[in-house]
Amino acid sequence: MNKGVLTKIKQGFKTFRPSEKKVAQYILENPEEVIRLSIMELAMKCNTSEASIIRFCRTLDLKGYQELKLSLSHDISKEEKKTRIIHEVIEADDTTEKILEKISIGSIKAIEDTKKVLNIDSLNKAIEAIDKAKRIYIFSAGASSVVALDAQYKFARINIPVFMYFDSHMQLTSSVHLTSEDVAIGISNSGRTKDVIKALEIAKRRGATTICITQYGQSPILNVSDIILFTANVENNFRSGAMASRIAQLNIIDSIFIGVACKRYDEVIKCLEVTREVVKDKQL
């Protein structure tokens, strides 16, 4: 059963086809009712076809309509058992305490929703690919470059060669030297950053395993990625997409890092000890 289907529908809504949006809108507004409807009845209520509903299920990585209903039933029961976290809109006259509370709730929600849209098999494949890779290159732009730099720092501590460049021209020129022994990671919240997509496309043509970290939904970066790691998006009036996406992206990077570290446990422990020792005298 595919859990978190309601989250996937909310996250991917903007990228759905027109016929899929009709189905998605009806499900979001009437989830309890949909569980009791046949596929023919739902098609009539959405003013669409049964084939469109089947395509919509496939878009959500579901085997069919029956799995959609089972997943909805699971999500609804989970919602009833917990207090819903509402990501409130930040007001200009909010106190500092209130701002901290709302931002914290939003960060928690970004991580929780990312768990729902992230495919664990894809995460395992990413960990395996990075563990076996000769070199890892990360392509990014804007705020996502901060996440790429964080990944470079983390992997450097356990002696895994990771390269990232803030300059987009350097990203493109480095991508032509990748081989089938390498991994290229593209980080783009929108999934539409031209330079990142181009670098991944070149890396893929050179035989490298390509991984993308991007917001859930359909976007061009998926077409050049062998492994797709979806994040959830949280927005409000003041908090930019870059702020929200960074939390979710960092969570995935941490999960990959720990996953690889666990595979090389003895080696990693030694690396962490020597790197900790070499910077010890830098502390007061």
Estimated structural class: alpha/beta
Name the beta content range: 5-15%
CATH architecture of the largest domain: 3-Layer(aba) Sandwich
What is the CA-atom radius of gyration, in angstroms? 21 Å
InterPro entries: Homeodomain-like_sf (IPR009057), HTH_RpiR (IPR000281), RpiR-like (IPR047640), RpiR-like_SIS (IPR035472), SIS_dom (IPR001347), SIS_dom_sf (IPR046348), WH-like_DNA-bd_sf (IPR036388)
Keywords: DNA-binding, Transcription, Transcription regulation
GO molecular function, one term: carbohydrate derivative binding
Organism: Caloranaerobacter azorensis H53214
What features would you describe in this structure?
The chain is an alpha/beta fold and 284 residues long. It folds into two domains: 5-84, Arc Repressor Mutant, subunit A (Orthogonal Bundle); 116-281, Glucose-6-phosphate isomerase like protein, domain 1 (Rossmann fold, 3-Layer(aba) Sandwich), CATH 3.40.50.10490. Helix content is 58%, strand content 8%. The chain has 13 helices and five strands. Strands 2-1-3-4-5 form a five-stranded parallel sheet, sandwiched between helices. Strand 1 (136-139), helix 9 and strand 2 form a beta-alpha-beta unit. Helix 7 packs across helix 12 and helix 10 (168-175) runs parallel beside helix 11. 36% of the residues are buried. Mean pLDDT is 89; it is low at 80-86.
